[in-house]
């Protein structure tokens, strides 16, 4: 992902391996640090744009939508970068929606991720 990625949030997620698979392997963020059940992800070498963790999430299921962020937007520099994410989503078998200017996907916990060119 380019250095214009605009996603920064922390969510209680479980298990960490599913978070890594989605945010790093599928979306393409680099893991910059890992400690005590938390993963920190970056694009373009920044210390982190996004973090996931397992803190206080024992037994947590899919996001209810009642509190917290409903969706995060990731801004990529080029349409080719967005196409690379679409290819990784296809390879992972992830369901997503495509429009002329964006990809919309939900992480394994139902948190929305919108990917656009900026």
Structural account:
- The chain has 2 helices and 8 strands; from the N terminus they run E-H-E-E-E-E-H-E-E-E.
- The protein is α/β, with parallel strands linked by helices and 118 residues long.
- The strands form 2 sheets. It has a 4-stranded mixed β-sheet with strand order 1-4-3-2, with helices on one face. A 4-stranded mixed β-sheet has the order 5-8-7-6, covered by helices on one side.
- A hairpin with a 5-residue loop joins strand 7 and strand 8 (112-117).
- The protein is globular.
Give a summary of the structure in a few sentences.
Helices cover 21% and strands 32% of the residues. It has 118 residues and is of the alpha/beta class.
Blueprint of the fold:
Elements: E1 10-12, H1 16-26, E2 30-35, E3 38-42, E4 50-53, E5 71-76, H2 79-92, E6 96-98, E7 102-106, E8 112-117
CATH topology: 2,3-Dihydroxybiphenyl 1,2-Dioxygenase, domain 1
- Total tally of structural domains: 1
CATH superfamily: 2,3-Dihydroxybiphenyl 1,2-Dioxygenase, domain 1
Instruction: Give the CATH level 1 class.
Output: Alpha Beta
Task: Give the helix proportion (percent range).
Answer: 10-25%
**Which strand-content bin applies to the residues?**
25-35%
Report the sheet with the most strands, covering strand number, pairing sense and barrel closure.
4 strands, mixed
How would you spell out the order of helices and strands?
EHEEEEHEEE
Strand numbers in spatial order across the main sheet: 1-4-3-2
Q: Please compute the radius of gyration using only Cα atoms.
A: 13 Å
CA distance, first residue to last residue:
12 Å
Mean pLDDT: 82
Alpha-beta classification:
alpha/beta
Number of strands: 8
Our count of helices gives 2
CATH architecture: Roll
Shape: globular
